From TrEMBL:
Residues that, per the record, bind substrate: R93, R99, N131, R162
SUPFAM superfamilies: LDH C-terminal domain-like, NAD(P)-binding Rossmann-fold domains
Organism: Aphanothece sacrum FPU1
Family matches, as Pfam families: Ldh_1_C, Ldh_1_N
Keyword Cytoplasm belongs to the record: no
Record CDD domains: LDH-like_MDH
Active site: H186 (proton acceptor)
NCBIfam families on file: MalateDH_bact, PRK06223.1
Annotated positions binding NAD(+): G20, A21, G22, N23, V24, G25, D44, N106, I129, T130, N131
An example molecular function term from Gene Ontology annotations: L-lactate dehydrogenase (NAD+) activity
Protein name according to UniProt: Malate dehydrogenase
HAMAP family (alphabetical): Malate_dehydrog_3
Length: 324
């Protein structure tokens, strides 16, 4: 091989910037790098923190055998030309708080992060993780002025994965045999859909009684809070990072997976001008398609109630930022 061959020298990896080097951001960085999905720029406001994490992660490269570069930085200039920007910056909740209690504090952080990042990566897809998720995704869309299909939020993959796990635990079978679907906002009013949960194609409604299913649904709704209560100082981050990594992989590899995603609705499910969890085909352009599954009247009502709560919070956030 001639090492001065142009095609060898110009060969480029995808580039993902992760904003926020806390528990979720650093774990996601590890997952992306170790799966060889992209080079990662990890940015945080705290000096030394992203640099230290990056150095620590890169020191394992020879053991984990990946080829990803990991750069820790406090400067948005270093995020330039990212294909994907993931926003994890902001406060996590502590016991007794709802995700909505984080609205005021995280709104400023997320809008600033989005405005800074878009300057250097005008064509990037933005994936939001910071809570309250649906509100922060809406603010990111506003702050970047991107087409709505290029902005999305991660929550449904996590909530569905929790429900999948609880179903598998209840039945004593492999999680690999279970699929689950949770739609709606990422809050106490999220909408787990047992009718669309299956075990190798068999609806769980044929395998579990109503009382058991309701118990698993309730545990899913409280899945985040259950961990916050155990950890005391913040929220979950391993499953959230895995969930976000699945979305990153789907986008970078243009896999057209159907994943519950907080996407911008323009009439789908009878809702407009809101980001909410719905089944989406994801690929290299972002949200390629929103799938409208049939909902019962009760499910529709529950989705509307969840949307109303998200909408109220979006309004509060926009007002507090002087953006309404
Ligand atoms: N959508 C979802 O399903 C999930 C959302 N979350 C949310 O993700 C967020 C992050 O959670 P953790 O990583 O556990 O929190 P963490 O406290 O461990 O990390 C947050 C990081 O953000 C950084 N940060 C704060 N202001 C910043 C700014 N202006 N610019 C850049 N970085 C800044 C902090 O220095 C810190 O390192 C929280 O809002 C949490 O609620 C967490 C898990 C799941
Ligand atoms: O519960 C939290 O605050 C973090 C989160 O969104 C989750 O784990 O679902």
């Amino acid at each position: 091989m001639n090492v001065s061959d142009d095609s060898f020298l110009t060969c480029q990896s995808a580039r993902v910037s992760v904003i926020g080097a806390g528990n979720v951001g650093r774990t996601l960085t590890q997952r992306i790098a170790e799966k060889n999905l992209a080079d990662v720029v990890l940015l945080d406001i705290i000096e030394g923190l992203p640099q230290g994490i990056a150095l620590d992660l890169i020191a394992a490269q020879g053991i984990e055998l990946h080829n990803s570069q990991i750069i820790g930085t406090n400067s948005y200039e270093d995020t330039a030309n990212s294909d994907l920007v993931v926003i994890t910056a902001g406060r996590p909740r502590t016991p007794g708080m709802t995700r909505d209690d984080l609205t005021q504090i995280n709104a400023k952080i997320v809008v600033n992060a989005a405005q800074q990042a878009i300057k250097y990566s005008p064509n990037a897809i933005f994936l939001v993780i910071t809570n309250p998720l649906d509100v922060m995704t809406y603010l990111t869309w506003k702050a970047t002025d991107l087409p709505p299909y290029q902005v999305m939020g991660m929550a449904g993959v996590l909530d569905s994965s929790r429900l999948q796990t609880f179903i598998a635990m209840e039945l004593g079978i492999s999680t690999a045999n279970v699929t689950a679907m949770v739609l709606g906002g990422h809050g106490d009013l999220m909408l787990p859909l047992p009718r669309y949960c299956t075990v190798n194609g068999i609806p769980i409604t044929e395998l579990l009684d109503e009382i058991t299913i309701n118990r698993l649904v309730e545990r899913t709704r409280n899945g985040g809070a259950e961990i916050v209560k155990l950890l005391q100082t913040g929220g979950a981050y391993y499953a959230p990072a895995s969930s976000a990594c699945l979305m990153v992989e789907t986008i970078l590899r243009n896999q057209s997976r159907l994943l519950p995603t907080a996407a911008y609705l323009q009439g789908e499910y009878g809702l407009n001008d809101i980001f909410l969890g719905v089944p989406c085909l994801l690929g290299c352009s972002g949200v390629k398609q929103i799938l409208e599954v049939t909902l019962t009247e009760i499910e529709k009502q529950a989705l509307n109630t969840s949307a109303t709560s998200v909408r109220k919070n979006i309004q509060l956030a926009l007002e507090s930022l002087g953006m309404s």
